[in-house]
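During the reporting period the student researcher (J.K.) took over the structure-prediction task from the postdoctoral fellow and processed the backlog of single-chain submissions. One of the processed entries is reproduced below for the supervisory committee.
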Amino acid sequence: DAWISSNGYFSLNVASSRGCPYSCNWCAKPIYGNSYHVRSAWSVAAELRLLKDAYQPDHIWFADDIFALSSRWTLEFADAVEALNARIPFKMQSRCDLMTRETVKALRRSGCDEVWMGAESGSQRILDAMDKGIRVNQIHEAAENLRRHGIRACLFLQFGYPGEEWPQIEATIAMT
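J.K. obtained the following structure tokens:
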């Protein structure tokens, strides 16, 4: 009741994976290291169907560190959600470089309405210093791919990374 009165909808959390294979040097992921384990796409879709039938949630939050790591898994997930009539609007977090046209299209089919991406900075120099492994243009491309499919693009940003100065901060602000 507290959640519904505060947010206006009933939401549940689901985890389809744990861990992250990337090595961003600022990240706090000491539990799993760089390992990544994912459930089968059909298992996750079946859980959504069970939740839909038993609790009728308005929304799902995928609590994964990184959702849709594999485009093949994401396509299979979308197919399973459709086959099981398990579609529930959901939010998730992922990486900009994973938000390709094919993946975003599959995410939309499966019910995704919002993606939180670790963009971190609008400065390539800062992204490189973070060992982020993405390019600034990939952030823009991902946001456009998501918007094109009616998915809200949200960015995690960092300010004050070692070596960051005002021009890099301005580049990040301009990116939003």
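The committee noted the following: The chain is about 40% helix and 20% strand.
J.K. will present the remaining backlog at the next meeting.
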